[in-house]
Amino acid sequence: MRSTERNGPPVSLLSRATAVLEAFDDSHPVLGLADLARRTGLPKSTVHRIASELVSLRVLERPDDATVDGYRLGMWFFERGELVPVHRSLSDAALPVMEDLREATRQRIHLAVLDGVDVVYVEILGTGRHDIASRTGGRLPAHATGVGKVLLAYSPAATVRARVDAGLPRMTPRTIATPGGLTRELRKIRSVGMALDLEESHLGISCVAAPVFGADHKIRAGLSVTGVTGSIDPVTLGPAVRTAAFTLSRTLRASGL
C-alpha cells in the first residue's frame, strides 16, 4: 500500500519513517514539510523530527538549490539498492542479452519486474525521447505498459485482480481502463507470446514486450523494445524481442535463477 492510499496515519516509529519515504515518487521527487505531512497524515512536528534524523543518516537529503525548501531521497538508497540480490542476479544475466537486442534494433531496451501492481524498471539501455518517463528504479502502473501487461498475462489471477482493484488509471487516451478490456488483452498476449504498448503509457511512444521466465518456470521479468511509434514494427521487432526473452529465460534456468 502506497503512502497516499493509507486509511489512517501510521502508528509505530518504523511505519512512520516508512510512510515518509513512501511519500516520494516520480511525480514528487522533492517534498516540503507541509506536503510530507499531508501525504503521510502525520503532524508536521512528527514529520520534521523524522525527516531531520533521516537527513543525518543520509537516507534523505536537502536539494543543493537553496531556493528549494524540501527533502529528497538520499544517496543511501542508491548505494544499498545496488546490493539487492534480485537486481544483481537478474541484471547480470540480462545485460548481455539487452546489449545484443539494442544493437540489433537500435531502440531503447527495458527490463522490468512486477512489484505489487506496478512495474519497476530494473535496467534500461539506449537513449530515447526525453518525455519517456521510464528510468532505472522507476515505477509505472502495470496495465498501461508493454512490460507490465506481459507480466500480468503470465501472473496468477489474484495479481490481475489486485491491479483491477487498485484501479486502471488512464495515462493516455489509449490506455486500457476497463477490467473487461484488460482481460481480453491479457488473453491475447498469452496466445501470441508478446505484448504491445501502442501509445498506452506515452503518446507517440510504442513498444513490443515479451515474457522472461525463471528456473521455476514462473514469470520473472518483462523485456521490451521501445521507441517512437513510427519506428516500432511488431512484425519485425516481435521475433527479435521474443528470441531475446527466450535466451534470457534459458540463461536464468541454467543459472538456477
Describe the structure in your own words.
The protein is α+β, with helices and mostly antiparallel strands and 257 residues long. It has 2 domains: 3-80, Winged helix-like DNA-binding domain superfamily/Winged helix DNA-binding domain (Arc Repressor Mutant, subunit A, Orthogonal Bundle); 84-254, GAF domain (Beta-Lactamase, 2-Layer Sandwich), CATH 3.30.450. Helices cover 44% and strands 18% of the residues. The protein is built from 9 helices and 8 strands. The protein has helices spanning 13-22, 33-40, 44-56, 75-81, 85-105, 146-153, 157-166, 179-192, 234-254, and strands spanning 60-61, 72-73, 108-115, 118-125, 139-141, 195-198, 205-213, 219-228. A 6-stranded antiparallel beta sheet has the order 5-4-3-8-7-6, sandwiched between helices. β6 (195-198) and β7 form a beta hairpin. α1 crosses α2 (33-40) and α2 (33-40) packs across α3 (44-56). The two termini are 28 Å apart.
Quick recap of the structure?
This protein is an alpha+beta fold and 257 residues long. Helix 2 packs across helix 3, helix 5 packs antiparallel against helix 9 and helix 6 packs across helix 8.
Question: Keywords, please?
Answer:
257 residues, alpha+beta, Arc Repressor Mutant, subunit A, Beta-Lactamase, 2 domains, two-stranded antiparallel sheet, 9 helices, 8 strands, globular
What is CATH's topology name of the largest domain?
Beta-Lactamase
List the uncertain runs.
1-6
- Helicity level: 40-55%
Cα(first) to Cα(last) distance is: 28 Å
Q: What's the overall average pLDDT, rounded?
A: 88
CATH superfamily of the largest domain, by name, is: GAF domain
Task: Assign an overall shape.
Answer: globular
The structural domain count equals 2
